[in-house]
Design a protein that fits this description.
Blueprint: H1 2-7, H2 13-30, H3 33-42, H4 47-68, H5 74-77, H6 84-95, E1 99-103, E2 109-111, E3 116-119, E4 144-154, E5 170-178, H7 180-186, E6 190-191, H8 214-218, E7 221-226, E8 230-235, H9 236-259
Parallel strand pairs: 3-5
Antiparallel strand pairs: 1-2, 1-4, 2-3, 4-5, 6-7, 7-8
């Protein structure tokens, strides 16, 4: 319940930690040791952990200042703290490639390495948890859903009637929903395989699900493949737009690094 309170109806474990840290920073700047300890006790937080995170953020800020020569004030740095969609997009960039996806009708996620997974009970995105404010339903109702995770915990093998064919073998800790758009921007490669009629064994991608039906090809639909493992159908114009944005981001980052 306390975790849900800190989350403020935000289905992201990472952003919940951020909001807890922001509240801790405010309390620590206004109250004495007892007041800070009371805040931590009331919210079931470890004062040592919060103090460590506070120091870590200050250290990162100082390193950024040294590297860039920029010394923005606190108000500038916190200007987007209320923008959930922007924060969640940045979390998605940070978590990639620790992601899992599921398609319409599926209840279990599949990681990039092909491991069947479900959300850990401690996460806000666990639909069976009393603290759940999950961005997901028990089974996928959209064409594709993606989730980022901090780590994986191996489940004990199930036996007898509890064993399920195709069931999850791992659980995902500290999760955040990830938009497919962010996934397409954060991935390493995003390519379109040759049409099935032109394919050969020299291609990196040769699995049947990585090729389109001829009718789709006739309607201007292409199959973009994310990092050689996740095929996504889309119109040619959409594919080109994603590629253009990826190129623009790469050019901007390269230019910034070159001049700083």
């Amino acid at each position: 319940i306390m975790k849900r309170k800190l989350a403020a109806d935000t289905p992201s474990d990472q952003i919940t930690i951020l909001r807890a840290l922001l509240q801790y920073n405010q309390v620590s700047s206004q109250q004495n040791f007892r007041g800070i300890q009371r805040f931590c006790d009331d919210n079931f937080l470890s004062r040592n952990t919060m103090s460590y995170l506070q120091t870590l953020c200050q250290s990162v800020s100082q390193n950024v200042q040294v590297a860039t020569g920029v010394n923005p004030n606190a108000q500038y740095c916190s200007r987007n703290n209320s923008d959930f969609f922007l924060l969640n997009a940045m979390v998605g960039f940070g978590l990639y490639s620790n992601i899992a996806i599921r398609k319409k009708g599926a209840s279990i996620f599949t990681t990039e390495k092909g491991r069947k997974s479900k959300v850990h009970p401690s996460s806000l995105n666990n639909t069976n948890s009393a603290n759940s404010i999950s961005a997901f339903t028990s089974s996928c109702t959209r064409e594709l859903e993606a989730i980022g995770f901090q780590d994986l915990v191996t489940l004990a093998p199930q036996k007898g009637r509890d064993a399920k064919i195709g069931g999850a073998s791992v659980q995902m800790l500290s999760t955040s929903p990830m938009s497919v758009f962010v996934l397409l921007l954060a991935c390493g490669s995003f390519t379109v395989p040759l049409p099935l009629s032109q394919s050969n064994q020299k291609q990196d991608v040769t699995h049947e699900e990585f090729f389109l039906d001829p009718c789709d090809e006739a309607n201007g639909i292409v199959l973009g493949v994310v990092d050689q493992w996740l095929p996504i159908r889309m119109y040619q114009d959409t594919f080109q737009m994603i590629c253009d944005i990826r190129e623009c981001l790469n050019d901007s980052i390269s230019s910034y690094l070159l001049h700083h």
